Amino acid sequence: MTNVKVSPKFQIVIPKAIRKSLGIKPGQTVRVIQYGDRIELIPQISIAEARGLYKGIDTDVEREPDRE
To answer: Stretch 37-63: mean pLDDT, rounded?
Structure first.
């Protein structure tokens, strides 16, 4: 776990090891979500990068009789 300091302008720096492992690039959009008393940063990817992300996933879902 790495600690970061919030600047007077409420900015933080994402540590290099985390940026590198997640492939975060300058100018990339990051989604900020609050869960109770914590903050999560989720890197957003383009539609082109997301293509095929779930290839091979099982899409068979048991449906209720009135939904078939």
So the answer is: 84
What secondary structure, in 3-state letters, does the chain show? CCCCCCCCCCCCCCCHHHHHHHCCCCCCCEEEEEECCEEEEEECCCHHHHCCCCCCCCCCCCCCHHHC
Domain ranges of the chain: 12-52
Which pLDDT belongs to residue 68?
Answer: 63
| CA 52 and chain centroid, separation | 17
pTM of the model: 0.63
> For residue 11, what are its two tokens?
């900015």
What pLDDT is attached to residue 13?
95
